[in-house]
Amino acid sequence: MIQEPEPLAHDQDVAALLPVLAQLDQSATELETGQHISAAQITAYETQAAHARHLLDAAGASATEVAQAEKAHRGDGARGFAIRGLDHATHTRQFGSTEPVNSQPGKYRDRDDDRDIDL
């Protein structure tokens, strides 16, 4: 027989998601409104979205429970942050970097060296 989690413990698990969703909402807003988007910002957003999805799945939280938790704990972000964060967790957006390719660390840079190498 499967036991349901204690209602209070479940509510606490859902409330613990709020800071993660607030950060994800903030990162998404920065990407959506930013003129300069770095590869690091995109990676951070995607990592936060995956982390939020994992926590949501582990808590078994519904959108309704997340919205109710936001109403009860108003101090974590701008109104509606939890549902916006939840939307980004479940429907992660694709962003493109505005950095030149050569300035992105780890990317292959095609160099045209003028040096002749004698073999």
Describe the structure.
With 119 residues, this protein is an all-alpha fold. Helices cover 56% and strands 0% of the residues. It has 5 helices and no strands. The protein has helices spanning 7-16, 18-33, 39-59, 63-72, 81-90. It is elongated, with a radius of gyration of 20 Å. The termini are far apart.
The global form is elongated
Helicity, in percent? 55-70%
Tally the beta strands.
Answer: 0
Q: What is the radius of gyration computed over CA atoms, rounded to a whole number of angstroms?
A: 20 Å
Which regions have little confidence, pLDDT < 50, spanning 5+ residues?
Answer: none
Q: List SSEs in N-to-C order.
A: HHHHH
Overall pLDDT confidence: 82
User: Main beta sheet, described?
Assistant: none
Query: Which strand-content bin applies to the residues?
Result: under 5%
Number of helices, where a helix is a run of at least 4 consecutive DSSP H or I residues: 5
Q: What is the topological layout?
A:
Elements lengths: L6 H10 L1 H16 L5 H21 L3 H10 L8 H10 L29
Helix pairs in contact: 2-3, 2-5, 3-5, 4-5
Outline:
By secondary structure, the chain is mainly α. The radius of gyration is 20 Å and the shape is elongated.
Features of this protein?
0% strand; elongated; 119 residues; 56% helix; 5 helices; single chain; mainly alpha
